[in-house]
Amino acid sequence: MLYKIVVPGKPVAKDRPRINKSGKMYTTLKTKQYEELVYAKTREVVPVPLEGNVKVAIRIYAKNLKSDIDNVIKSILDGMTGAAYENDRQVKTLYAEVKESHFERVEIDISEKEERRKNNVSGSF
Length: 125
What we know:
Oligomer: single chain
Distance between the termini: 21 Å
CATH architecture: 2-Layer Sandwich
Strand content: 25-35%
Shape: globular
Number of helices: 2
CATH superfamily: Holliday junction resolvase RusA
Number of domains: 1
Structural class: alpha+beta
Helix content: 10-25%
Radius of gyration: 16 Å
Largest sheet: 4 strands, mixed
Order of helices and strands: EEEHEHEE
C-alpha cells in the first residue's frame, strides 16, 4: 500500500548534535520540533509502522532552500521513525528532490518494498 504524507511549512534540516555543559549530546529545539511535526503528520496517515523494507520518495518544496538536501532528508527520516517504520534502516530505496515553491511543504510517498525472489527460476525480474 502507498501512503502519501504532507508536512506543511518550511522544511528543516537536521542540525548537528550539540553538547550541553554536563557533556550530554542533545538535538536542537528547532530540529526536535520539526521531527515531532513529521511524526504527527505520518501518524495521521500510516496506521501502524511498516514491518519490512520500505521505499520512500520525498519532494521538498521551498522558497529558497539553503540547507543541504541530505540534512533535510535526515530530519524527515528520523521524524518518521516509530510512525512509518520502527527504524530508518528499513529504508532500502530513497528518492528525493527539491522544487522551488512559495507554498513550502514536504510531500512523502512511502510503501513496503516488494522483495524479489532470491531463486528466480525464470530469469526475469
